[in-house]
Sequence to fold (641 residues):
Amino acid sequence: MATEFHNLHDLRQGTSLATKVFIQRDYSDGTICKFQTKFPSELESRIERALFEDTVKTLNSFYCEAEKIGGQSYLEGCLACATAYIIFLCMETQYEKVLKKISTYIQEQNEKIYGPRGLLITDPIERGMRVIEISVYEDRGSSGSSSSRSSSAASSTR
Amino acid sequence: MHFGVGEPMRQCEYSQINTRSSTPMESPYNKGTLRRKWQTFPGRNKFYCNGRIMMARQTGVFYLTLVLIVVTSGLFFAFDCPFLALHLTPAIPVIGGILFSFVLGTLLRTSFSDPGVLPRATPDEAADLERQIDVANGSSSTGYRPPPRTKEVNINGQTVKLKYCFTCKIFRPPRASHCSLCDNCVERFDHHCPWVGNCVGKRNYRFFYMFILSLSFLTIFIFAFVITHVILRSNAAGFLPALRDSPASVLEVVVCFFSIWSIVGLSGFHTYLIGSNQTTNEDIKGSWSSKRGKDNYNPYSYGNIFTNCCAALCGPLPPSLIDRRGFVLPDTPQPAPPTNGITMYGATQSQSHMCDQDQCIQSTKFVLQAAATPLLQSEPKTMADERPLPGRTSLGEPCTSLPLGQPTPPTSSPNLSCEAELLSHVPETHHHFLTPEEAPSPPGMLPCGSPLGHSHTMPFYNPASQDSLHEDSVRGLVKLSSV
Fold:
């Protein structure tokens, strides 16, 4: 029973959540926000390694830009200090601007690349910037056995 | 006959109710009242203005700070400024006013903002981590507690250990620490400051620093000009008449005199910390001290003081990760409740009521853990032995209050190696002592007295030997005995 997926909403209607893959943070460069580019084994059959790595690397570069300490952030910091930080009530910080860009990028990736492959990326900001959560959806009709397998695995861990 | 007529109607009613309230979560939403995330926040924080303002639970000392600053400055503007503006220059009240508003602005900003709290892990994340840990440990965890969970990371050539937080169910990022008073993991945790009624962490450290710096200037300013005022009056009329004419000056001088030592000392200390890009927590533990080893250095430092200062004060301000004012949606995964490592795959629906049932759940879990785990382990029990039993605990008794769960208590500074810094630490050690009823223990249990004695009983913290589960099980048993 193959269902045509026209958008993410349709995707979820005809499928069930099989598992969630978590891409953890990479702290080798310190406390800056950076995610591991290691390709998880659960996604091996679902998406090409290059596409996945490209997504994570782009996200990492966005976060690097957000946390960059340079002219813009100094100006923002000094201006904010001079106005006793009241300016933050009216102005959007550099970080917030980049977060919006990230959100748009993730949405775009979901629609173009991950959605059609039955995957869904959750914006890391919704998980406290700890992980990139990738939900793996299975087609309800074709994967009755795999979903029952995953549910029995869940019950055995209890 | 009567029942025959009524029953089909009743049956219709019953089936209607069933479909509507199939899960306990749905009933609040059908009424049209969605709860905001701050209302179900699992930490021990207080929220005001519908989630816009976030503070620690104990705010008494914060009000004291406010009162001291406002009253002293108010007296200065009311009694000393008119004379000084007339006899010296009107710039004095203007500068004083600017300093005062800056102090207040930064204080409120520090106290009301999110210090950088890390949200707790969702059940899926927690389960995934548990699975990874089991694989790493060889999955031989049956019955007894699992070994302490750490991950090692190499940062700029220095090996840093990331610890697992049993309460938040995450591996803490480097420089993050769990605040026992607020029961949250905070990024780049500096310390918990009762004077501002909040933790000081990544997001509000610069406000805190500007607050203490501007307060130093303000106290020195007021002190200097009050002395000037009294001297000028004494020249005209004599010392005692001068004091009689402006009695407020005496109070101001006394307050400022005592404040200057602590505030200026604290500013100096934090200036040093900023310059070397360390947190109070790291400095107290001597994490990057050369005494630990020849190759021990701070991997987060940028190398020069100027860059470190700029990074700390003018770096980008990260957004709050906890989204206080967002709405709790039916499909939003709620954070997993803290356990001792046993995977509890509870339904996400029940966790939305965590805020209400938190105390009950926590206490019950501690009791269960206590029953499940053996009390006597081979760990060094200097802390556990000195725990008093409930019933005998009173506010006056020196009590070894142990920070809840996690190692690295923020304000315990028992072994300050540098005596010169002791003075600046005094307000910080007092921080912990000034909130004696703030039980750093499971909610509703063991109100501990002023823990003056506890600083001497805690040796230099060795995080590797800390076992929060052990502490939890001990606490659970004590609770059990008090029931």
Notes: Confidence is low (pLDDT under 50) at residues 1-29, 341-358, 375-466 of chain B.
